[in-house]
Write a structure and sequence with these properties.
single chain, 17% strand, 5-stranded parallel sheet, alpha/beta, 360 residues, 12 strands, Rossmann fold, 2 domains
């Protein structure tokens, strides 16, 4: 079977990397397509995958419209040459359109529920895989599974933390440190968001530095006042850095969700509710959600300071993480089974959703 996987974000490389390795080992052929946005290409090359890049992404509104046409065409032409039996993605518009034109199935993972994007890929997609938490996507195309995307690559059966990251960070095991995550706010779904103010970024660093070393991961260039805090490690070691961290403080979704699977507490400031994170907060107490309002930003700084002052041990958070694992499946194992047995697997999941429990 030939499988074409379209990547729209570095996290998507992680989402599909173990799946791709497993499928290649089983004799299937896998090709990734991507745009040059952040460090997707670096990760694809690091893991040794065959890929085709369509060039830089556009930032302006006009550029995004042009990019949609350009990348659609490139995805179609790549598919025409590669002859995939299946398209796989995290809600990719380009994979959906190309699969429809080539009359091949497209299976999409979805957890952001950005309907601006969903409306553009859903009509051309055969299956949309989502978590079992309550969400607004109601469709006969939806197949729910008991998992989070991050379990595809951070499940203990698939991931072990590498302590050498501590040397890269210049800390020793047991030292407290915090990883802050800032985003660029240039994506189409970021309109209307302000993020954390520069003043409160400085305040957070000042408060957290009283108890821990501070590192910043940022999508965009940092102001000169913050550049000294930029985390300087290989991209493939970021999960290791998050595992050993005492706290993650972010205005984004992916890294906090990763922290929940790694047993690291996180604080999120965002006006949009990420439903999987809200569940991880409500059911497992692994993260803490705040809005972008000035009042909530200060409350998020206070909460982060509280966590650092309490000096809770890693086993305390891992115990919460283990409760999460008991309730969910190994997403990579499930995805391998689902795609290898599609479309029969769709009927199995519709008739017997508990079938997926064998992938715990």
């Amino acid at each position: 079977m030939n499988i074409l996987i379209d990547i729209g974000h570095p996290a998507h490389v992680h989402l599909f990397k173990n799946y791709a390795k497993e499928m290649i080992n089983r004799g299937h052929k896998v090709l990734f397509t991507c745009r040059d946005k952040e460090f997707e290409i670096y990760l694809l090359e690091f893991y040794g995958f065959e890929y085709k890049s369509f060039g830089k992404k556009y930032k302006s509104t006009a550029g995004k419209l042009l990019g949609m046409i350009k990348f659609d065409i490139q995805e179609f032409l790549t598919g025409l040459k590669f002859k995939p039996d299946l398209f796989l993605s995290h809600g990719s518009i380009y994979a959906a359109h190309a699969s429809f034109l080539l009359r091949k199935p497209h299976i999409a993972f979805e957890d952001t529920f950005n309907f601006e994007q969903v409306k553009l890929y859903k009509p051309f997609t055969d299956i949309i895989l989502t978590g079992t938490y309550d969400h607004p996507l109601k469709s006969e195309k939806v197949v729910r599974f008991k998992g989070y995307h991050e379990l595809a690559y951070l499940h203990p059966k698939r991931y072990s933390p590498d302590k050498t990251v501590l040397d890269d960070l210049g800390v020793i095991e047991g030292d407290k440190y915090v990883v802050l995550r800032f985003v660029s706010w240039v994506a189409s779904h970021d309109r209307g968001h302000s993020g954390i103010s520069f003043e409160n970024k400085l305040k957070a660093i000042e408060e957290f530095s009283k108890y821990a070393k501070v590192f910043i991961s940022s999508e965009s260039e940092l102001p000169k006042e913050l550049e000294q805090y930029r985390i300087n490690i290989p991209a493939e070691k970021m999960h290791d850095a998050l595992y050993f961290a005492s706290l993650h403080w972010a205005e984004s979704f992916t890294m906090p969700a990763e922290c929940s699977i790694l047993g690291t507490p996180s604080i999120i400031m965002h006006n949009t509710d990420a439903l999987y994170l809200k569940e991880q907060e409500r059911e497992y107490g692994l993260c803490f959600y705040y809005s972008e309002s000035p009042k909530d930003q200060l409350a998020a700084i206070a909460k982060g300071t509280e966590i650092l002052k309490k000096d809770l041990s890693k086993p305390y958070w891992l115990e919460k993480r283990d409760l999460l694992l008991k309730d969910h499946i190994n997403v990579t194992d499930f995805t391998v089974w689902f795609t290898e047995n599609y479309p029969k697997s769709k009927k199995i999941m519709q008739n017997d959703p508990e079938y997926q429990l064998r992938f715990k």
